[in-house]
Amino acid sequence: xxxxxxxxxxxACELGWSKVVSxxxxxxxxxxxxxxxxxxxLFLASKKGxxxxxTALVEAGACxxxxxxxxxxxxxxxxxxKHKDVADYLGQFVQYF
Length: 97
Prior knowledge:
The chain is mostly helical. α1 packs antiparallel against α2, α3 packs antiparallel against α4 and α3 runs parallel beside α5. The radius of gyration is 12 Å and the shape is globular. The mean pLDDT is 93.
């Protein structure tokens, strides 16, 4: 982990390397670890629109509705960056009150 909280899982998620993500998860990578901004690997995959990575993270137990330090969620990032497939997928796990 770097001083900004970046792990190999963060890098693989941002680049959309779903096979690498799966290997890292199988090797014990923590899917809910947050970086210096309070964002988890799911934030990066959602922002970039990597549905395969998002799916792998969620299936491994990634928290879909945990906000980062400025109150954003992975779903909100997917919506903002117009990744409808990712937003639709994440939306099925979020409960609105």
